[in-house]
Design brief:
Number of helices: 16
Order of helices and strands: HHHHHHHEHEEHHHHHHEHEH
Helix content: over 70%
Shape: globular
Radius of gyration: 21 Å
Strand content: under 5%
Oligomer: single chain
CATH architecture: Up-down Bundle
CATH topology: A middle domain of Talin 1
């Protein structure tokens, strides 16, 4: 009973039975696989993908009250809180994927494809989910469109340049891309520029709201899975959930690649679709929660802040780690056209957020969701 109680608390009453059901299915499939029963391996890997995604999802729920406490404690604007605190915390699964792919598996392209797929998911599916759960058309702040969206578009362009301009022709006639210290520093410098931009906006916000009383929270604290009473406690919860996400991400990556081997689907495609969707669950949870509470700027800003962090930090830090271990990192990503899909999706989101006086309607949200499905179907069917 002592072991079950924290598990039940973690998943919550609404998800506990489903999580235990998937766990039982995974255990049964593992036993059947050991007995050599055909098809058991497929069930095992699928159930582990679902279970690890559920854990990542639920861990993401615990970020909401912790990051909200920090935001209220420092009186941060909603958009900046989402673009930095939520983005850093909820992007940790993508960071773990990049580290595992680069250091452990020696397949850095799996990390790159996962981050591209996650960014595509974030920029299309999350706004679609937020738009559909909102009770009225979403009014998006101009800062989110002209700061976060435009800066993110520039970062995606930078990613394309890094993948194409650092390609080298090998004696065998094959073109290969290697990333080293220069690429890592460019990505890190770009993220620092984004943080400085946010800091400038924060100072402007403070000057414009000097002397104003702190706005009362309209959130129902009873809905939060935990009660935060100090900033130290908030950071402890965030750190604990990041560790749990890291362990779950290891299971997700291993299961997805093994399932891909059984289905003869390349690890790059599995990363772009399956791993990307699994690691993007915390972003979805945070944005939907923000939207349900009426914080539309936070819901949308988290999308771009998370994507900027994914590309700039989650791709550069593993490269720096690899430099100390084995030298420059080979990026054997032949599907560079995936970046063009991401650029197109970013331009589409920019237009939808900007048009009709910065309003995202349910119709626009639906189109964004369908666009994502069409891209995924194309990538899987073409074997990209």
């Amino acid at each position: 009973m002592t072991v079950i109680r924290p598990i039940r608390t973690f998943f919550g009453e609404h998800m506990y039975k489903e999580a235990m059901g998937v766990t039982g299915l995974a255990l049964a499939a593992w036993l059947a696989h050991r007995q050599g029963i055909g098809g058991a391996a497929h069930v095992l890997w699928v159930s582990l993908i679902v279970l690890s995604s559920l854990v990542i999802w639920r861990a993401g729920d615990f970020f909401a009250p912790a990051s909200s406490f920090i935001q209220n404690h420092h009186n941060l604007p909603q958009s900046i809180k989402a673009a930095v605190i939520d983005a850093v915390a909820s992007s940790f699964p993508e960071f773990c994927v990049a580290v595992i792919a680069t250091i452990q598996l020696g397949k850095a392209e799996v990390g790159v494809s996962t981050i591209i797929g996650s960014a595509l998911y974030n920029v299309l599916v999350i706004p679609a989910a937020v738009g559909l759960v909102a009770t009225s058309p979403i009014k998006v702040g101009k800062d989110v469109v002209w700061r976060d969206n435009v800066f993110y578009l520039a970062v995606v362009g930078l990613l394309y340049i890094m993948l194409t301009q650092f390609a080298e022709l090998q004696p065998s006639g094959e073109v290969q891309t290697y990333w080293g210290l220069g690429v890592a520093l460019i990505f890190l410098g770009t993220y620092l520029l984004y943080v400085f931009w946010l800091q400038r906006d924060y100072r402007k916000y403070q000057r414009e709201h000097v002397g104003e009383p702190e706005p009362e929270s309209d959130e129902d604290e009873d809905e939060d899975p935990i009660k935060i009473t100090s900033e130290g406690g908030a950071w402890m919860w965030i750190a604990g959930m990041m560790i749990l996400m890291g362990l779950s991400t290891e299971v997700l990556v291993t299961s997805a690649i093994n399932l891909g081997d059984l289905l003869t689907i390349s690890p790059v495609v599995m990363g772009f679709v399956i791993i990307a969707a699994g690691t993007s669950v915390p972003d979805t949870a945070l944005s939907v929660i923000s939207a349900q509470r009426g914080h539309y700027d936070a819901a949308i800003s988290n999308v771009f802040g998370s994507n900027i962090f994914d590309i700039c930090i989650c791709l550069s830090v593993p490269v720096l780690i690899a430099l100390t271990i084995s030298g420059e990192t080979l990026i054997d990503l032949k599907q560079v056209e995936l970046v063009w899909a991401l650029i197109g999706a970013t331009l589409l989101s920019f237009y939808f957020f900007w048009s009709k006086n910065y309003t995202l309607s349910k119709a626009k949200a639906g189109i964004m969701g369908l666009t994502y499905l069409m891209i995924v179907v194309y990538v899987v069917s073409s074997g990209a």
